């Protein structure tokens, strides 16, 4: 008879939890996105969140959503998924799974496909009606990258840090 704990978190809760924790590092005042890439044997390979590239100061580059292209964030932010892919220095991401708190855009979809990620588990899909996300799904479908929505369990996790 085993004395194993029964209320441990599931793989999905674990990896989406890590993705969400990573997103908490984002300085974006409007949307914080986190990503976690996992190997087929459940090992975390990489993590990322949305932010400016190294050397581009969060205090000097703009976080605005509006204004001239050079004066808002969109030219400058690296998306969480791309950061997670680029943060991986170990070799191949072939066959891996991406947990991400927001459905990947078309630019990230290209990087996901080309890096060999085969599965996506996403939480929010708040830009689903935008051309970027429609194009993303079109490419992911064509390339055979599977995606599914994360199912919330409503488990509350409290950490005192
Ligand atoms: O897939 C994504 N991954 C990702 O990290 N982002 C980032 C870029 C921006 O910093 C922010 C989106 O900003 P906003 O929601 O204010 O337009 O989220 C945005 C997307 C778009 O789907
Ligand atoms: Zn993106």
UniProtKB/TrEMBL annotation:
Keywords for the protein's UniProt record, in alphabetical order: Hydrolase
Essential cofactor(s): Zn(2+)
Domain CMP/dCMP-type deaminase, residue spans: 10-147
SUPFAM superfamilies in UniProt: Cytidine deaminase-like (SSF53927)
Pfam families: dCMP_cyt_deam_1
Keyword Isomerase: no
PANTHER family, per the entry: DEOXYCYTIDYLATE DEAMINASE, DEOXYCYTIDYLATE DEAMINASE-RELATED
Protein name: dCMP deaminase family protein
Organism of derivation: Maccoyibacter intestinihominis
